[in-house]
Design brief:
Elements (H helix, E strand, L loop, with lengths): L1 H17 L3 E2 L5 E2 L3 H93 L5 H10 L3 H16 L5
Length: 165
């Protein structure tokens, strides 16, 4: 648009240099055609229009420049929010992984404890009476299965933070 306007102005400019008006004794102008006067009017009108456009564009440019800091602030806030959401997602994934690993470990511990309990039952049936107090002491070292389940439920509630995924 701007290039076209400049080329058009140059095209009109050349004939304007050719205009050599002269005043007559009566005050009339000679050496100027009606077409040249029309071109002068168009150029004057275009000049006013172009000045108005420049003024509007300058005002809009000023307005947009004043918005740049707040837009930068919004962009930074959006980026910060996005980083927090990504970190939150990563932490949720890590929490899920750790919860599943913990569950696997608890399951293993439960199976191991159950196996030890069965072994102690077997030994109790086959060991002499004088060694049975040792078995009782060994049983005391084993965790109580009911207490283990209660702890597991409490740990699960704390790990989830009371939130559902």
């Amino acid at each position: 648009g701007t290039v076209r306007l400049l080329k058009e102005a140059d095209r009109v400019n050349a004939p304007l240099h050719d205009i050599q008006p002269e005043k007559t004794l009566t005050g009339a102008v000679k050496g100027v055609t009606v077409d040249q006067v029309e071109q002068l009017k168009k150029m004057a009108l275009r000049s006013v229009t172009d000045r108005h456009k420049v003024q509007e564009l300058t005002e809009e440019n000023t307005r947009l420049r004043s918005q740049v800091p707040s837009m930068k602030k919004r962009l930074e806030e959006a980026q910060r929010q996005q980083r927090l959401e990504q970190e939150n997602r990563r932490l949720r994934d890590e929490n899920y992984y750790l919860q599943s690993e913990l569950q696997e470990e608890r399951s293993f511990t439960e199976r191991l404890t159950d196996g030890i309990g069965r072994m102690l039952d077997f030994l109790e049936e086959h060991l002499p009476e004088r060694l049975r107090p040792l078995l009782e002491k060994a049983r005391e070292l084993l965790p109580d299965p009911e207490i283990g389940q209660q702890q597991e439920q409490q740990q699960h509630q704390r790990g989830m933070g009371g939130m559902e995924l």
